[in-house]
Design goal:
With about 180 residues, this protein is mostly helical. It is built from 8 helices and no strands. α3 packs antiparallel against α4 and α5 runs antiparallel to α6. The chain is elongated, with a radius of gyration of 20 Å.
Length: about 180
């Protein structure tokens, strides 16, 4: 389910009788959506193509990384769960990042994709970057906060969600 910005308050294109501030407000989430989408696609592909990452042990492996953060994690039980199958966990995270990134860029099930991104960022913050001191050195908390506006707003323009919504609305308006 997508919600569009009410047409009486915003235009769907720049310069449609609104000043530059209204246009900038309307498109404010687009740079965030592009950045997070591209970043998560890159992160997923980086994990899948790094031959040393998807291993139980060894330098740069997911298993070694998880064992290294286990004692400093906010929720060590999450790390223990991942350590039952580090390679499976690595593939799950990588494929999750790809799905989230693609969904965010295309604007397909955008709120669900953003929620997935927020959950991935939350789990990484509570495990991998929890020990960052000061806390703002760990980027996972910032990613979590960046996902929240997209969870709330979705992708109301330049998205498959919006196109599907428009198509359903036209079908209803046109009748059977």
């Amino acid at each position: 389910m997508t919600h569009r910005i009410h047409p009486n308050t915003h235009t769907s294109y720049p310069g449609g009788g609104r000043d530059w501030r209204a246009t900038a407000t309307y498109y404010a989430l687009l740079p965030l959506r592009l950045f997070l989408g591209v970043t998560f696609i890159y992160a997923g592909l980086d994990k899948l193509t790094d031959s040393g990452f998807m291993k139980d042990s060894g330098s740069g492996s997911i298993g070694e990384m998880m064992r290294g953060v286990r004692d400093s994690a906010a929720i060590p039980d999450l790390v223990d769960l991942a350590l039952k199958s580090p390679v499976g966990f690595g593939y799950t995270i990588a494929i999750g990042e790809l799905a989230v990134g693609i969904g965010t860029l295309l604007g397909l099930l955008a709120r669900i994709a953003a929620l997935g991104g927020a959950l991935i960022s939350l789990s990484l913050w509570l495990t991998v970057s929890w020990a960052s001191d000061p806390y703002y050195y760990g980027n996972d908390l910032a990613y979590l906060m960046a996902w929240l506006p997209l969870v709330l707003a979705g992708a109301p323009y330049f998205s498959l969600d919006a196109a599907l919504h428009d198509r359903r609305r036209e079908r209803v308006a046109g009748g059977p």
